[in-house]
Amino acid sequence: MLAKIPNILLIYTGGTIGMVKDYKSNALKAFNFEQIKDKIPELNLLDCEIDTVSFDAPIDSSNMSPKHWVKIADIIECHYKNIDGFVVLSGTDTMSYTASAISFMFENLSKPVIFTGSQLPIGDLRTDAKENLITAIQIAATQDGDAPKIGEVCLYFEYKLYRANRTTKVSSEQFEAFNSPNFPQLGESGVHLIFNDNVLKKVVENKPLIVRKNFEANIVILKLYPGINEQIVKNILEIPNLNGVVLETYGAGNAPTDAWFTNLIENAINNGIFIVNVSQCISGSVILGHYETSNHLKKIGIISGKDITTESAVAKLKYLIGENIPANKFKLVFETPLRGEMS
Ligand code: ASP
Asked: Catalytic: which of 16, 92, 94, 310?
């Protein structure tokens, strides 16, 4: 129950959003995030209390790893009881991976966790950071009666609110850096902040929060391309201690039908490596058996990633392997939507 004005925790992990230009050297450098309200005095006008926590050493999101995912989850878990909503500031480069992983970590989430960042630093005249940050906080603070409006992990960027584990970074230059190709946006910021109630996850407040943090599995992303050969595929599938593969296939989940390819994939599956078929296409779904060129994969028991993004597939594969899901149930569990990450 929210009896008072909401309190929001800003978690700064690094990235462009928290940088200012050093006009002497012309380089971007991190500023002390505790001073965020000095940089954006408008934050004082918001109808919520804002606390901040920052990574001791903020990172470019290219350096993000599962250990940082766990660090973010620890902060959220530690403050979960007393905070009404979380805004996680991260670099955009790997934000979709991080936010997807956080979505799998928290079962029965009933409070908002909103990821955002920016393409230009907060100290830049034309920055997109202000709008992204202010609106992300407003979204995290939005209530529906006594309960938070949002109870899932989202990504807010350039006026659009997305389900985080459906997003992918599509531009390194445009302010509209993210897209959610296979799932409608959850909301939009215009003159009014509008939520798409039909697709928002229903907030259920009375279930205990479960947090899972084992993401140490060894996996690879194997992207097919015309001309990929037996030696390359063999070497990859024979990486010692490999647990899982996100196989990026063509179109609706299609792959070469050469016997060597089928045999290598089949052997890997029989050796206990979990292989998920994800499409290289930005939108659409894997449909095993739709073409002859995916029938062979269907027969040997490849897991269908359906319309999941590669980012989310990486996070889900690591999550489920970390959970020690038994081999005979793994395919079924992976193919089941757990946090709205697939249709
Ligand atoms: N390289 C930066 C990062 O991902 C870009 C950004 O902040 O958007 O950390």
From this structure: 16
Contact assessment for residue 275 and residue 242, using Cβ atoms and an 8 Å cutoff: no
Other Cβ atoms within 10 Å of 212 Cβ, number: 14
Q: Tell whether the model's pLDDT for residue 161 goes beyond 90.
A: yes
CA atoms 56, 62, 66, 69: torsion sign: positive
Condensed to tens digits (0 to 9), the pLDDT of residues 274-322 reads 999 999 999 999 999 998 999 999 999 999 999 999 999 999 999 999 9
Rounded to two decimals, what is the model's pTM? 0.96
Residue pair 114/155 in contact by the 8 Å Cβ criterion: yes
The residues near 21 (Cβ < 8 Å, ≥ 6 apart) are: 27, 28, 29, 121, 123, 124
pLDDT for the residue numbered 3? 55
Class of domain 7-211: alpha beta
Q: Which residues line ligand 1 (CB under 6 A)?
A: 14-16, 60-62, 91-93, 117
| CB within 8 Å of 33: residues ≥ 6 apart | 10, 12, 18, 52, 54, 58
**What pLDDT was estimated at residue 37?**
83
Mutate to test the pocket of ligand 1, among 17, 19, 62, 98 (most ligand atoms within 8 A of CB): 62
Instruction: For domain 219-334, give its CATH number from 3.30.160.250, 3.30.360.10, 3.40.50.40, 3.40.47.40.
Output: 3.40.50.40
Q: How far is the CA of 61 from the centre of ligand 1 (A)?
A: 6
